[in-house]
Amino acid sequence: MGTGDLKSRYGSWGLVAGAAEGLGRAFSLNLAAEKINLILVDQQEELLESLARELEGDFGIRVRTLHLNLESAEAVKGMMELIREVNCRMIVYNAAFSRVQRFLQNDPAMLDRYIQVNMRTPMQLVHAFGRHYSTTGDLRKGILLMSSLAGSWGTQLLGPYGGTKAFNQILAESLHFELKREGFDVTACIAGATATPGYLASLPYGEAGPGSAMKPDRVARAALGALGRRPFVVSGFWNKLVYFLLTRVLPRRVSLRIMNRAVGNRYRDKL
Known about the structure:
Rossmann fold
């Protein structure tokens, strides 16, 4: 799936939150290939600056970088300052905090981090972005939020992550309809296993390579191609098939057993 005519719809600037590596890097490369200038946001300063130099050199675009901890209450303020400055009308919130572990192994600070990075910051950013552009209905504005198949079912070892990803899907679906008349295109991407550094680091010891995980570029293309066209997209044929079978065909209790058995078998050492 191609990314479409993003620049003609949303203007010459886009923001990617969680941009430094993995899926965020893939979003940045795809947007840069369309000659869209970028605001890149991440707390990994060295990787972020390296990516900025690469994009400027390879694609001839302008890049602004923000070294921000998206857990911070000040993160939205920093992003909105640059959004206003360059008239950025497209945001991709890719950042996420994730751990594969038993719920009771999380400490209170870690649980707050799930809420802050995965829920509070994207919701506050979308709210601030929406209020800033709410009176410009003649201009299209794009909002892409990342969700996950883990947010479609309650799965052991993934409770806080899955719950926060479900939040992003519901938020995006709601705003897809509610904000349409103000000129906003809002879409959630429901991604399956993606071969990012974070995912690969979570694999059990001895499990080789990404296996059936999708390449980040394919996920980014599917997500950007759906922006403005539908409330959500499931990336990848096999993920679409799994999603269809487990949400439309099988009873939810059966789907829960299947997913929890699969996760339990893969991460047996963590149970």
